[in-house]
Specification:
The complex is a heterotrimer of chains A (244), B (364) and C (499). By secondary structure, chain A is an alpha/beta fold. Helices cover 14% and strands 26% of the residues of chain A. With 364 residues, chain B is of the alpha+beta class. Classes of the chains: A alpha/beta (244), B alpha+beta (364), C alpha/beta (499). At the A-B interface, loops of A face helix 11 of B.
């Protein structure tokens, strides 16, 4: 099933998509131009393939469905995502995966500021975000759970793999960073360590998938060592308050 | 009755967009309208506008005044003032096209004039200072008149409505500029006064801005010490005055001024090499009240060039792209891709890091 | 015959009292004593000042200090306090003397000002995760900066004081407070990246190591002022007046001039240390200029010079003159400011609230386009971090606090500082009392207090959508008045809540 988005507004496009999805499992949308909320709350078993530049809040509350973008995405991709898969064959804007609870997001290139902000896990839900390029400032702010991987591929020599104030307020989950960690960007309550066996397995599984999706070489990516960022305490602010 | 800008402070959100040709080649307003139109959902029909640089080559050394009049009486009084204070070479009603959603238009006129030599001898001001004072005087003292554009070889066009309709209304497809900026406004409470739409301009400064600043009153009370009066109580107005003060009156470079408005954090300054550290410490110390706080992305046009700036926490999105000699800016990537599908480079403007595109020699 | 009744009553729970005698040994006012049997503890409550030292030290919590319950015939004019004060004066012919600060129920404007917070149109900022800056600079600022053609700074900036918090400790001399109290403040200032103030008591040689965290004061008595002293301070403060006693000098009685105090003040042991009401080289504003520039000359322009005045009726005109006379920092002390000793009538009736003075002065300096050239420090009773946030929004660069850190060190506001018998070891020179105050413990309490206030200031800033204190300074849109008259709102330069 193939449709064209063109310049129509988000409401008519999304209505059309919902209608078609009631009878089809997979839709290809061409010429997407900034329409917002595409694939919002889409259920398991449904797939959207997008060509062009989808607008903000793509895949918000995604409920098990799959969205693949053949281009770049804008702000707030996978906002409060509850499950499913988002694959972006390009870069993405700010606030990727805000408060994401489950599912996977793979971004081929860079992500903007505040990627993975407040990602969390619950019971058997465990969100995963893989960023192929660099990540902007405030990566994983308030991160409470899940796995975030930053590969930093194809970056300029003077570019740090993560931006300033990385993992500030992080109190759960793990970030795997490829190569040297720019210590001056890392929040003080974060420890940098090596991956254990189980973590290594998780990392390898994700890198394999990244390489399949984006046709990169696993061997090249694994040439550099990975480090793990994790919170030193799950309650970093426990001593801040005094009872009155 | 609802109070209008200046009588009350009205917070607003927005979309912004800009295109500049670094070769100085001029092009029509069609693309900028298409770009800002794509971000329709970021404005609410209560204000849209454009600034265009290089549009009046035939009058390029004259001040171009764009004026809203509530009635003819205001026009008569203003013209009396203008003809007394300027050698006006040409004036006319700004041509407009009937556009469905644009209603309740004021009278819109433009005047091209030079500061008479005799005036200069009487005052110590230079032409710009003289003109700034004249603009402020008309806007403060003549009821029903509002000068919304006063630079040379540039002009602002704005109205209450969606920006794409405003562009249509002013027939911007018929103008040629080397640089265009655009604004779609989302005010939270406004009676829809045309003067309150953006861009805000003073001389050849024009500013389009997205976000609401929390430092407003600290900035206002600082800049008002230097003779400015923030009559509209809008963020854009105070930011314009800050740039005018720092760059035109105090002679600071534009990028330096940007580093004052979106200053580096102290933790960054503390780790700079000694000389740089001293410089930034001095900037933050002396100009501490110019720090703009809160989310903002702004595009500043001036005779120097086009400046894009994001707040230092990067709370608003702003994307830039390049293709050939053209540079694009917009609040959203799709608003660039709609007019430039295959840019050579596309990236986010980083928080607190100014991007400055100097203007080339303009090609007539 | 006793014309006055005691103010307090000591209630001792004899079921709890174990006759350990701690209260007897601790009370410098000699309220508690053993009966002739050497076991029963009794109290002469007429001497009690309600400093609570005994209650705090009592291991079985047997002591409670209560108001002395004496009925008077109702009279809202001739209150018991009025009658007591008349009787004290009738008995002695003396001027009433008090310690601490104005205790009358004048309006406290801090409690009638409300703060703003961001909702939707701009985000509030989380101070724990996001950068949140409260670093503050004091000193004279040029109107603009100039650069050479390479973009290098050409303007030479006058000396600036970098503070890591907008909170400094105000002047309390060694003499008015104990060495241990002053040392605690010095240690706290160092740890916090802020400054303490020597008052006019000179700098004790043992506090030399804290000179980078000291403000040195030059007052009318010029005690301890010499080249080395001037050079040791981060900035020099000329004290013209004090909020607790505007227009009044100071008098440290000879019996308090111990060997150590004598050394710090550079006066003979046992001699009265009198600070005249005015500086006798300042009879007018141009004379103040002379003193400011003499101090700058003497320190080769390396130190900012501050001038501290009490907040009085025409303070805006005065401050404008002081700014033009060359002061780099101007301190205004409101009428709720504290003191070691002040005539009661002065303490309770002279001067104006710092809220109104600060608002008026900041506006006046802006109207004259010189606000940005000088730093304004507000003093005169900041009770908590919200008071401070409001002061900065009204226009202050920084504030001075003194009573609050003293409370952190044990002060219970008994207002008897002038007696020299402070049971908490703060306002005393008696070695047995001074040693009760352990600087190693007390400095940490002061640090805790200011740390907590810093956090709270950051929380409030973040709520307002600000990430730097620079954007709060003079940002009166963040304030609204509640229950204030049009006139009060006009002076404060703020709108009423709901507007």
């Amino acid at each position: 099933m193939k449709i064209t988005a063109g310049k129509q507004g988000f409401q008519s496009l999304n209505e059309q998509v919902r209608e078609l999805l009631s009878e089809n499992d997979e839709i290809l949308i061409e010429d997407v131009n900034g329409q917002r909320y595409i694939g919002a709350a889409m259920d398991k078993g449904k797939t959207l393939n997008l060509y062009g530049t989808p607008g903000n809040d793509m895949g918000a509350y995604l409920n098990g469905g799959k969205i693949e973008v053949f281009g770049n995405a804008q702000e707030a991709v996978g906002n409060t995502m509850g499950g499913g898969e988002i694959i972006i064959h390009g870069h993405t804007g700010d606030t990727l995966g805000y408060a994401m609870r489950d599912g996977e997001i793979y971004v081929r290139n860079r992500a903007g500021s505040r990627a993975g902000i407040h990602m969390k896990e619950f019971e058997n839900m465990h969100p995963t975000v893989v960023i192929g390029g660099i990540a902007g400032a405030f990566l994983a702010e308030y991160m409470a759970g899940g796995t975030l991987i930053v590969l930093g591929l194809n970056r300029d020599k003077n570019q740090d793999i993560v931006g300033a104030h990385c993992a500030t307020g992080m109190h759960g989950g793990k970030i795997y960073v490829r190569g040297e960690v720019p210590e001056h960007h890392i929040s003080p309550n974060i420890s940098v360590s090596e991956l254990n066996e189980e973590e290594n397995e998780e990392l390898l599984r994700c890198i394999k998938k990244y390489c399949v999706l984006f046709k990169e070489e696993e061997e090249y990516i694994l040439k550099e060592k990975f480090y793990k960022l994790s919170p030193s305490s799950s309650r970093p602010y426990a001593n801040l308050y005094t009872k009155n | 009755m609802l109070l209008r800008e200046g009588e009350v402070r009205i917070p607003s959100g927005c979309a912004i967009s800009a295109i500049t040709d670094t070769s100085g080649e001029r092009f029509s307003g069609t693309d900028i309208i298409e770009s800002i139109a794509l971000m329709h959902d970021r404005s609410n029909g209560l204000g849209g506008g454009f600034a265009a640089y290089g549009i009046y080559p035939e009058f390029k050394d004259l001040y171009a005044f764009h004026i809203f009049y509530d009635d003819n009486d205001a026009r008569v009084k203003t013209e009396e003032f203008l003809f007394k204070h300027y050698d006006i070479e040409y004036f006319e009603q700004i041509p407009t096209r009937k556009t469905k959603s644009i209603e309740k238009a004021p009278l819109i006129w433009r005047y091209f004039g030079a500061v008479p030599n005799s005036k200069m001898k009487k005052n110590d001001y230079d032409d710009d200072e003289y003109t700034a004072k004249c603009v402020i005087r008309v806007n403060n003292e003549i009821k029903g008149a509002y000068i919304f554009s006063s630079g040379k070889n540039m002009g602002a066009f704005k109205a209450v409505g969606y920006p794409e309709d405003v562009g249509e209304y002013y027939m911007l497809d018929g103008y040629k500029a080397h640089t265009w900026t655009a604004h779609g406004r989302f005010p939270t409470n406004t009676p829809g006064w045309w003067g309150g739409a953006h861009p805000f301009t003073l001389l050849d400064w024009s500013i389009v801005h997205n976000g609401e600043i929390s430092s407003y009153d600290a900035n206002r009370r600082f800049v008002e010490q230097f003779g400015y009066r923030c009559n509209l109580q809008t963020d854009t107005e105070v930011i314009t005055y800050l740039f005018d003060l720092l760059v035109r009156r105090q002679g600071l470079k534009l990028d330096m001024s940007a580093s004052i408005l979106a200053a580096p954090e102290w933790t960054v300054i503390d780790n700079m090499p000694q000389k740089e550290k001293e410089l930034y410490t001095a900037l933050r110390t002396v100009y501490s009240s110019c720090l703009i706080n809160g989310p903002f992305s702004i595009l500043v046009g001036s005779k120097h060039g086009l400046l894009a700036l994001n707040d230092r926490l990067k709370l608003r999105s702003l994307i830039t792209a390049k293709k050939g000699s053209k540079i694009y800016f917009a609040s959203e990537e799709s608003a660039i891709r709609i007019i430039c599908p295959e840019p050579e480079e596309i990236k986010a403007v980083e928080g607190g890091v100014p991007v400055f595109i100097p203007f080339a020699e303009v090609k007539d | 015959m006793n014309y006055t009744v005691p103010e307090f009553e000591v209630e001792r729970n004899i079921n709890r009292c174990i006759s350990c005698g701690a209260c007897v040994r601790q009370c410098s006012y000699e309220v508690h004593y053993f009966d002739d049997d050497g076991k029963t503890v009794l109290a002469d409550e007429s001497k009690c000042v309600a400093c609570h030292r005994c209650a705090a030290i009592c291991p079985t919590r047997a002591i409670k200090i209560k108001k002395y319950d004496m009925a008077y015939k109702e009279h809202s004019n001739w209150t018991p306090v009025m009658q007591k004060e008349i009787n004290l004066q009738a008995a002695t012919g003396g001027v009433l003397l008090s310690g601490m600060s104005n205790n009358k129920p004048y309006p406290i404007y801090w409690d009638k000002i409300l703060l703003n917070a961001s909702q939707v149109t701009n985000p509030s900022i989380d101070p724990l995760r996001e950068p949140m800056e409260i670093r503050t600079f004091l000193g004279r600022k040029p109107e603009k900066l100039e650069f050479n053609e390479n973009g290098e700074l050409k303007t030479k900036l006058p000396p600036q004081i970098q503070l890591e918090t907008p909170i400094m400790f105000s002047a309390m001399s060694f003499g008015s407070i104990s060495f241990n109290a002053q040392k605690s403040l010095a240690m706290a200032a160092k740890e916090l990246g802020t400054l303490f103030n020597t008052g006019e008591g000179g700098l004790h040689p043992k506090l030399e190591e804290f000179k980078d965290y000291a403000v040195v004061q030059v007052a009318s008595g010029r005690f301890g002022v010499h080249k080395g002293y001037l050079e040791s301070g981060r900035f020099i403060e000329i004290k013209i007046g004090q909020g607790a006693k505007p227009g009044i000098g100071g008098h440290l009685p000879g019996e308090k001039v111990t060997v150590e105090v004598s050394n710090a003040r550079m006066i003979p042991v046992g001699s009265d240390a009198i600070s005249p009401a005015p500086h006798h080289d300042i009879y007018s504003i141009e004379d103040l200029r002379q003193l400011i520039w003499s101090l700058k000359e003497a320190t080769q322009y390396k130190k900012p010079v501050a001038v501290k005045i009490a907040a009085v009726h025409n303070c805006s005109a005065i401050v404008s003159g002081v700014a033009r006379a060359g002061a780099d920092i101007i301190v205004m002390d409101g009428f709720r400011g504290g003191t070691g000793a002040a005539p009661t009538r002065i303490r309770d009736n002279v001067g104006i609230p710092i809220e109104l003075a600060l608002a008026a002065v900041d506006k006046r300096l802006r109207d004259e386009s010189i606000r940005n050239t000088v730093s304004l420090v507000a003093a005169g009773s900041f009770r908590n971090s919200a008071d401070i946030v409001k002061a900065i929004a009204l226009g202050a660069d920084a504030v001075y606090v003194a009573s609050a850190p003293l409370i952190a060190m044990g002060c219970h506001m008994c207002q008897q500082c002038h007696s020299g018998k402070c049971n908490w070891g703060i306002a005393t020179q008696r070695p047995d009392l001074v040693k009760r105050l352990n600087p190693e413990i007390m400095y940490k309490r002061v640090v805790n207090l200011i740390d907590a206030w810093n956090h709270e200031i950051k929380e409030m800033l973040g709520g307002m959508g600000l990430n730097s204190i620079d954007s709060l300074r003079g940002n009166r849109l963040m304030l609204r008045g509640i229950g204030l008259t049009e006139k009060e709102l006009e002076i404060l330069g703020i709108s009423h809540a709901g507007e």
